[in-house]
Amino acid sequence: MKRWDLPKVMLIAGLLFIYLPMVVLVIYSFNASKLVTVWGGWSIHWYVGLLDNTQLMNSVWRSLQVAFFTSCSAVIIGTLAAFVMTRMPRFRGKTVFSGMITAPLVMPEVITGLSLLLLFVAMGQLIGWPGERGLTTIWIAHTSFTASYVAVVVSSRLKELDLSIEEAAMDLGAKPWKTFLLITVPMIAPSLAAGWMMAFTLSLDDLVLASFVSGPGSTTLPMEIFSSVRLGVKPEINAVASLILLSVSMATLIAWFLIRRSEKRRLKAMQLAYASEAEEAAGSRQRTA
Amino acid sequence: MNILTRYLPKGRHYVIGAPFLWLFLFFVLPFVIVLKISFAEAEVAIPPYSEVFSYVDQVIQVTLNLGNYIFLSEDELYWAAYLGSIKIATVSTLLCLFIGFPMAYAIARANKEMQTVLLLLIMMPTWTAILIRVYAWMGLLSKNGLINSTLMSLGIIDSPIQMLNTDFAVYLGIVYSYLPFMILPLYANLVKHDMTLLEAASDLGASRFTSFWRITVPLSKNGIYAGCMLVFIPAVGEFVIPELLGGPETLMIGKVLWQEFFNNRDWPVASALAVIMLAILIIPIILFNRNQQKELEGRL
Questions:
Q1: So what's the pLDDT on residue A1?
Q2: Is B157 on the interface with A (CB under 8 A)?
Q3: Rounded to an integer, what distance in angstroms lies between the CA atom of residue B104 and that of residue B187?
Q4: How many CB pairs under 8 A join A and B?
Q5: Which residues of B touch A37 (CB under 8 A)?
Q6: Would you say B84 and B252 are in contact if contact means Cβ atoms under 8 Å apart?
Q7: 0.80 cut: is pTM over it?
Q8: Is the pLDDT assigned to residue B10 strictly greater than 60?
Q9: Homologous superfamily, domain B75-265
């Protein structure tokens, strides 16, 4: 095989295609010129200006709140769903259940957004709640679609787990929920963290669902960005966008690093356990000999 | 497994029930309401549609107004929007496949340490806002943007090319945004392939292309399938990309639905548009769900 074959060239070209536009965006956010396309030297002018933009800062705070509550509830619902899919034997309606988990992954956002809005309106007429749409309705909408992503991430981990450990705990008299909390959860903790992070960023990014189900005074950051981006490229938006890119990639890197470290530790512990087992076995053989 | 099932029945229903109830209430039930509203009439009221069910003089009346569907079928604009969406989504999906397959192949063939790094590089953009990644292209493609000014200073073109607000920009934006979703399932599939099969084929005299076409491609069928569905289905209903990168002549159904809802405030027509879109996508969605169920349960 040649050192440089087509797939490798494509991979490098593809990665450049993915990252170059973002790099250019970050570089131009430090542009001193008010004209977005003309380079006028380095400056952090636009970043400083952001702090005075209270409207924008308020929307950042709202988005962070929604994202935090979304990721917490999505991890709970998504993990339960993943548990049902991987651990429960076939039951009636399992195919429907599985469809409800995976369909939100691909469902066009305009459909989900419109349908949730109509649900909230109908509920408001029928039971009087939610009377006004706002952060709560955005939270519900975000939880529903991010839970699917959590379920996929967590179930891929649950599938790999050695069932005998959970069975051993239950043989020794632990109740199922205790086994789940003390044995299963610690073992899937890295993927819970990854799922949490994923739900957080997905919620932080969402424009379409939030636009449909938000109410007066609950403009989130993507909605704020969208309404000004529609009118063209602006230096302030370059700065906000760069900040989001940087913070999300930092968070991703940290999460990735933590998960990898815990994986490595686990592997090492397992190797040690096997090694000592092998030693013991060798020792007992020697004694019997 | 036996011990697990023996203990489960009591708590089992709660464990299944909680996520089931949530998903039913906030994912399935809303579609029923969309279907209902699509048979209503637009009214100037709060909420802006007529009642489908009414109870007058001990009679339950169901007024199914087919007007929205007739209106949609008679207007060429909506036909063009549906066909345009399907065309753009299909072409973009194929482009993603042709670009993504070699990339996934190269990642699957890299050494273990390199694989995790490359995967992270592919995955990271899927976690950052699609809005911002599309916005980055707006600056690059615009009339006096970086691409045009570079081409002009190199003397390749004399006057700026119109790239932003064209169909070209929409294709570019969709491929750019959805490429990672094609690569990830392809990689997950390709990495499981047994390399000895390819060695055997080349020992028996197959060319690299033959062994790729007759061994690698058939084996990666499930990955291709999952990747294509992950790109095609959401791309059909895409709103942000045609809105920001497309021009006024770019007709996509997601954008039309948005305008009906937010600009014209016609909720029943928007609902009818959503119902038809769902009817077009229901078969791909069911196929995708089947594929994913095996994946979730670990039967693949």
A1: 46
A2: no
A3: 5
A4: 276
A5: 139, 142, 144-146, 149
A6: yes
A7: yes
A8: no
A9: MetI-like (1.10.3720.10)
